[in-house]
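User: Sequence in, structure out. Go.
Assistant: Echoing your sequence, followed by the structure tokens.
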Amino acid sequence: MSKRKRKKKDGSKKEVKYQGVQKRVQKKGRGRYQARIRIDGKRQTLGTFDTPKEAAQAYDRAAIEAGYPTSKLNFLDQVPKEYNPKKKKLLSTNTTGFRGVHKEGNRFKAQSSIDGKKHTIGRFDTAKEAAEAWDQAALQAKFPRCELNFPDLMKHDKKVSEEEVEEEELEDEAKDQDQDQDEEEVTPPPKKKTCHSSSTTTNFDNVSQQEEEEIIY
């Protein structure tokens, strides 16, 4: 016997696909969708709306004003071109000055948190080395770039890697061209025409036109 799906406390059955939007029980004179956001650890209610899209747009406006990363927004096509997300503040307990880096004895430990699970990246001699390792892991996990310790350095590394790939492709093309040229130079000349008879072989390149006419096949 199949179990019935329980309704949530707010009476909704389906999840709303927009960030910062919750479906509420419809009441007289109020909308069904509520927009809420958390800023500096405090949750704020932005209002209730008739459609989830309207609530999501209200959330995005507040998120942009608060400097949220673009990964936390609903409508990327409505983000201003000059928008620059604020870098997330470090915890008060962080003594290294780098995100994801903690001191253990005389070394520094890089650790990330993905889907609520902590992952140890490694231990390093300096805090900067640990921070760079954390940034690499954060990029692979598709963290917002504004949360990196060295966002400008990561952009430079990406540009350098692309240039290296282009140089390797050009070198491969040059090698292929040289190889094709060598093959053309090594191609043997065409064989000389010869006429075979039962007893002799005649080379047409070494006989005159009159002698050719006298040859009997």
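User: And one key feature?
Assistant: The domain at 101-149 is CATH 3.30.730.10 (GCC-box Binding Domain).
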